[in-house]
Design brief:
Peptidase_M16_C; about 45% helix; Cytochrome Bc1 Complex, Chain A, domain 1; 2 domains; about 375 residues; 10 strands; Peptidase M16-like protein; 14 helices; alpha+beta; metal ion binding
Length: about 375
């Protein structure tokens, strides 16, 4: 159990319960998502779906979500409604409506949603990138699941046992909430063992009736946490910085291959990669792929310029404080410091590190991380 708190006097509060190691890589295929869906839509055993109507009437928002690593129950409410909001969340955790009829209904709804996702080419290309990079591991499967028909009600009940005391993180902003009532009802289940995956490289092409090619790419980026600030600068210059970044300049501005081209760091507890994407005309597909490879190769061999570093510093030092203004932003920042083992106050320290860093230090870092040349590609094309 861990508690994060941020004071705020705006009259509205947030309480989130994050259950570590309950995401899709810690469950049978699709079960983590299915469980979140039932908590989101099927209510309590006593009130069924009218449970949410009572929350809406008092402007209380309750949302359950899951990703590959953890699941989150998020509650937002006006301070004067805090007792009612907490009472309802405790009811949901104590007596969720895990019975056959709502289970069947959830299954139908998830299958329908999955069918709709097949029309989203960005989603398909992104999903397939993980399929090729993390082949034969639980990370290759999409969070929503691939074999939803195989999920049983018993699977849902079993996975819910891991919404437990030992792996919960309470994130509270605004009015201070007593967490004891939650600790009294959460089970004592021992958390599942943490997982970490090393990406492989390969290529996957999915043929569809499309007007343009969707190109997603990724590579391992084995960055230690004390190098995160260097990775932030390097990837900003390579492709995260929008106009002015290498990828945008070379792919869009100079050659007109794509409207946009991006690269970004994706550092999680279960994997560390750099990934990116672009869309281009069908006839430019191979040239665009070749160009991405060339840009990354040149980036490693030649590094960055003083001008690029100055520009990156100016943007990062100016924009980072703006990402820490709202209550939810402050809480997310504190959670990331805890969850990624960065230490309290890391993001403040990071700004000082960015300010002081030299072009030689960044280039030494880039040269050291030539693993980003081991690119995987996921392409949706005609």
């Amino acid at each position: 159990m861990y508690l994060i708190y941020e004071k705020d006097n705006l009259g509205r509060s947030i309480l989130e319960l994050v259950f570590k190691n309950t995401g899709s890589i810690y469950s049978k295929d699709g079960v983590a998502y299915f469980l979140a869906h039932m908590l989101n839509t099927k209510g309590t055993l006593k009130e069924k779906e009218s449970f949410y109507k009572k929350l809406e009437e008092k402007a209380i928002n309750l949302q359950t979500s899951t990703n590959k690593e953890y699941s989150t129950i998020s509650l937002t409410f006006l301070n004067e409604k805090s007792n009612f909001a907490i009472k309802k969340l405790l009811e949901l955790l104590s007596n969720p409506n895990f019975t056959q009829e709502p289970f069947v209904k959830s299954k139908e709804e998830i299958i329908a949603k999955k069918k709709n996702l097949q029309n989203n080419n960005d989603y398909i290309a992104s999903k397939n990138l993980f399929k090729v990079m993390f082949k034969n591991t639980l990370l290759e499967k999409e969070t929503i699941g691939e074999n939803i028909e195989d999920i049983s009600l018993e699977d849902i009940k079993n996975h819910f046992k891991y919404y437990a005391k030992e792996n919960v993180v309470f994130i509270n902003g605004g009015k201070k909430i007593e967490i004891e009532p939650f600790l009294e009802i959460l089970p004592n289940t021992k958390p599942k063992k943490e997982k970490f995956y090393i990406p492989k490289n390969g290529k996957i092409v999915e043929k569809k009736e499309v007007e343009q090619s969707y190109i997603y790419f990724g590579a391992p980026f084995e960055v230690d946490k004390n190098e995160f600030y260097l990775a932030k600068i390097a990837t900003f210059i390579l492709g995260a910085g929008g106009f002015g970044s290498r990828m945008m300049e070379e792919i869009r501005v100079k050659r007109g291959y794509a409207y946009s081209a991006y690269a970004m760091n994706d550092f999680k507890r279960s994997y560390k990669i750099i990934k990116g994407h672009l869309q281009t005309k069908l006839e430019n597909q191979e040239d665009a792929i070749k160009l991405v490879k060339e840009l990354i190769n040149e980036f490693i061999n030649k590094g960055i310029t003083k001008e690029e570093l100055q520009s990156a510093k100016k943007f990062l030092l100016g924009s980072e404080p703006l990402r820490n203004e709202t209550l939810s932003q402050k809480l997310l920042r504190k959670f990331n410091e805890y969850y990624l083992n960065l230490g309290e106050g890391y993001f403040e320290k990071e700004l000082k590190l960015i300010e002081k860093v030299t072009v030689d230090e960044v280039n030494e870092f880039i040269k050291k991380h030539n693993e980003i040349e081991n690119l995987s590609f996921s392409i949706v094309t005609k």
